[in-house]
């Protein structure tokens, strides 16, 4: 059956117009100098129905031919030892590793280093940005969330999902993390195959998947939008919280996530080089996404209540306080309209904590050297990750 040609179907809807004319979208245009229009829509829209066939074939040849643990161990061996043309392995494995082991001509290791340093230097603001802007803000795009819903991510629980996201992000943003066989490289390949596994499982078991409206499960265009969250939206959030960054660091963030996207099998033409490109790409993608639905609200509340469920903090009053701080940051970082759609609870004095953060960052920036901030940020982020991994590995969170 011939598929209907995709159009920017929500471009005249209030949620789209308000975001780009009055809300964070307007701020992103000002922040980036983007010139948004629909002239390139037809260049990008086919990627809504495009997937990582290379990754899918590896899953079919390895994961679907043996038990999961055995397959995972086999893939780990390929990641850590490399794959050559003469190895006796499936052709799909050779093809995937030929791509990921080939260093693209555009890769700049100095920019990777600058991007990693900004991630570390921004310390806990990085984690606040990821959680209270990038992640929860993404839940406002109803079709983007459908793979999470149909794979029953809610049943797994927000603590486990957050732990996995944190594990991936931290390991991808350290020094030399993306060298071939290094930890970040390993996480990228494994994440790529998890996406393929989930996509093939959805296609096989979920008959109600609405490809016409939702696109292919975990399609290339949605992947682009997700990784723009880690670069453009992340930078915008850091700026909102009073952080400053150099041109080199800004370039570095886009470069780092461009390379991660390349390892994940996202087509290179979808990976922006800078904030102007990223905003223009993001504008087109948002025009095919409706606003929050009931699933979005469930995902948002699951994330907010993670603070109450998480046993890292011993006492209930500490957990309630942490939830309050995340609620305050969510209201500060996202548009009020988005918060209302996601049914984020209101909070008293909700601007106090974010405004205090801005003041603290202004002073901290002046008093503490860049190197000291990088070291401190790395240490604090690794501590948070360790706490999460201890809980999810040594408890019944599953």
From TrEMBL:
Q: Which GO terms describe its molecular function?
A: oxidoreductase activity
Residue span(s) of domain ER-bound oxygenase mpaB/mpaB'/Rubber oxygenase catalytic: 156-346
Which residue positions does the secretion signal occupy? none
Alphabetical list of InterPro entries matching this protein: Lcp-like (IPR037473), MPAB/Lcp_cat_dom (IPR018713)
For this protein, the record's Pfam families field holds:
MPAB_Lcp_cat (PF09995)
- Protein name (record): DUF2236 domain-containing protein
């Amino acid at each position: 059956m011939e598929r209907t040609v995709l159009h920017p179907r929500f471009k005249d809807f209030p949620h789209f117009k308000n975001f780009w004319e009055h809300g964070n979208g307007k701020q992103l245009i000002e922040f980036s100098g983007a010139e948004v229009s629909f002239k390139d829509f037809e260049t990008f829209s086919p990627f809504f129905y495009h997937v990582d066939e290379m990754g899918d074939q590896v899953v079919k040849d390895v994961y679907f031919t043996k038990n999961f643990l055995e397959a995972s161990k086999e893939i780990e061996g390929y990641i850590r030892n490399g794959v050559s043309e003469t190895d006796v392995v499936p052709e799909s494995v050779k093809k995937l590793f030929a791509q990921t082991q080939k260093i693209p001509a555009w890769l700049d290791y100095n920019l990777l280093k600058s991007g990693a340093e900004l991630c570390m230097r921004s310390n806990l603001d990085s984690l606040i940005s990821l959680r209270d802007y990038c992640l929860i803000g993404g839940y406002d795009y109803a079709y983007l969330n459908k793979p999470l819903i149909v794979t029953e991510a809610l049943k797994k629980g927000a603590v486990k999902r957050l732990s996995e996201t944190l594990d991936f992000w931290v390991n991808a943003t350290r020094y030399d993390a993306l060298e071939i066989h290094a930890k970040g490289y390993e996480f990228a390949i494994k994440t790529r195959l998890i996406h393929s596994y989930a996509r093939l499982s959805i296609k096989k078991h979920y008959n109600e998947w609405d490809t016409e409206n939702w696109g292919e499960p975990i399609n290339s265009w949605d992947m682009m939008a997700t990784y723009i969250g880690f670069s453009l939206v992340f930078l915008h959030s850091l700026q909102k919280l009073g952080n400053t960054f150099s041109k080199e660091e800004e370039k570095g963030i886009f470069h780092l996530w461009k390379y991660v996207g390349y390892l994940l099998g996202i087509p290179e033409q979808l990976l922006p080089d800078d904030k102007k490109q990223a905003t223009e790409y993001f504008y087109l993608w948002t025009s095919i996404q409706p606003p929050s639905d009931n699933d979005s609200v469930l995902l948002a509340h699951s994330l907010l209540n993670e603070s109450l469920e998480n046993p890292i903090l011993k006492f209930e009053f500490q957990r309630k306080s942490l939830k309050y701080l995340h609620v305050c940051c969510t209201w500060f970082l996202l548009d009020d309209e988005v918060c209302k759609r996601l049914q984020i609870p209101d909070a008293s004095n909700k601007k106090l904590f974010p405004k205090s953060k801005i003041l603290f960052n202004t002073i901290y920036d002046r008093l503490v050297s860049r190197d000291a901030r990088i070291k401190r940020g790395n240490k604090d982020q690794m501590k948070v990750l360790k706490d999460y991994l201890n809980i999810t590995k040594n408890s019944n969170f599953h």
